[in-house]
Amino acid sequence: MTSDVTLQADKPVAAQALRRSLSVKQVVVLTLSGLSPAASVYITGSAVLHLAGTGAAAALLLGGGVVVLASLLYAELGAAFPRAGGVYPGITQVLGPGAGFVAITLGLITAPATLAFAALGLADYLRVLAPGLPRLALAFTALGGAGLICMLNIGVGAWVTGAFLAAELLVLLVLTLAAALHPVRGLGEVLLHPVMLGPLHQLTPTPGWTLLLATISGAYACAGSGMAIYFAEDMRGPSTRIGGVVAWVGVIAAAVVIAPLVWLTTSAAHLDSILAAEAPIAAYLSATAGPPVAYATSLVVATAILNNIIASMLAFSRFLYSTGRDRAWPRQLSTWASELHSRFGSPWLASLALVLVAGLLCLVGERGLLVVLSGEVFTATLVAASVLVGRRRRLTGVTSFRSPLFPLLPMIGFVIVAAFFAADWRDPTAGRPSLCLLAGVAASAALYHHLNRRRAAASHRSG
């Protein structure tokens, strides 16, 4: 990179503006699609059930509560600086360009890695339903198809994701009703006396540390409402309304994910066999509603993962567009990143770049991608710090969304991040290496930005 990497939001490159064509409902649909409720329930929820047994109920309630609180921080920062870059513009304005460049660098790494991980997950899921399909070809096809949709008018993306989301919510409704109509134990028993599958396949009390780990996983299942901020410049009306969207999506997502899983823990008759199954939710539905229903819902879960890829790529392409417009890169790269399609108004080169980089990252494999993704607690730390400092400097929460319980809520945010950090540190296979890797990336980005600014200042003085 050259010395014109300045991250000057007040001196953008010449770039067209995104078209304000989305309604608030469409932004909600796109954000929920990025959260992928059905995939969260069937994939992450299954992992929580394997980990904590009926303790999944308490873990998800606590984790969902954590996510709702965290979404309020994202809502305040996003409403104060409602731009397509997500949270980095707010971090830049409150904490300075160095912190903003750290957030950009982390996003530049994790965005395509997230897409690659989802594409490989979709391929694995389809191979379970139809063994023998080529894994990488499926992943590449999913990324390419999502990229094509993202290059079109965002209204097309909203329509496609909305159709997929409707199918997701129908599947979750079926699961919730099946569980609610067949209770075998009380909610109090599930919450106060959780049990899990022991090493000899017997039911044993769920330990407290296991519940903590499950709570963190439950939070991951419900997280992602901050994605709405990426669509702030596509939304009709005042952009500051994005704060309310983020907050409400946080509540809706938590409720949609938590309800079916909590009901399931109260209604699984043969709990030991359900927890021992490779796919416990599919096994439960097969036993309760029959194999055809279980298979049909599994197909919908596959479309839910594809829906997640489409919505996430729509969001991340706007992130790249914003970094180009803010001159985060050398001028030519910034111009390319901020270019919009003449007909559709989409950041088509940014979408193409995401497809290509995510496709290459698929070659790394899921284990390698977990090392890249699982320790990303640094952006959340910057968000909490931005709200804490921004409110005191009257940069956030003044004329836009104002999170409650200040300054307690940002402090709770730091505690939540510390808990995630501790859980990742105890994982020597992915979590700890990821923390070390991303800490190194963040430190290198901060150092690079500092040296680059000094070099630019020296060049200016000598000129």
Written overview of the protein:
- The protein is mainly alpha-helical and 463 residues long.
- The chain has one domain (24-458): Amino acid/polyamine transporter I.
- The protein has helices at 24-35, 37-52, 56-80, 88-95, 97-129, 135-151, 154-180, 187-192, 208-222, 242-267, 271-276, 280-289, 291-325, 331-337, 348-361, 366-373, 378-392, 408-425, 431-462; strands spanning 195-197, 203-205.
- The protein has a two-stranded antiparallel sheet with strand order 1-2.
- It is globular.
- The relative contact order is 0.20.
What is the topological layout?
Layout: H1 24-35, H2 37-52, H3 56-80, H4 88-95, H5 97-129, H6 135-151, H7 154-180, H8 187-192, E1 195-197, E2 203-205, H9 208-222, H10 242-267, H11 271-276, H12 280-289, H13 291-325, H14 331-337, H15 348-361, H16 366-373, H17 378-392, H18 408-425, H19 431-462
Antiparallel strand pairs: 1-2
Helix-strand category: mainly alpha
Instruction: Tell me the series of helices and strands, N- to C-terminal.
Output: HHHHHHHHEEHHHHHHHHHHH
Number of helices: 19
Averaged pLDDT, please? Answer: 91
Beta-strand portion reads under 5%
Our count of domains comes out at 1
Helix content: over 70%
Strands of the largest sheet, in order across it? 1-2
Q: Which key phrases capture this entry?
A:
463 residues; mainly alpha; Amino acid/polyamine transporter I; 19 helices; 1% strand
At a glance:
The chain has 463 residues and is mainly alpha-helical. The protein is built from 19 helices and 2 strands. The chain has helices at 24-35, 37-52, 56-80, 88-95, 97-129, 135-151, 154-180, 187-192, 208-222, 242-267, 271-276, 280-289, 291-325, 331-337, 348-361, 366-373, 378-392, 408-425, 431-462, and strands at residues 195-197, 203-205.
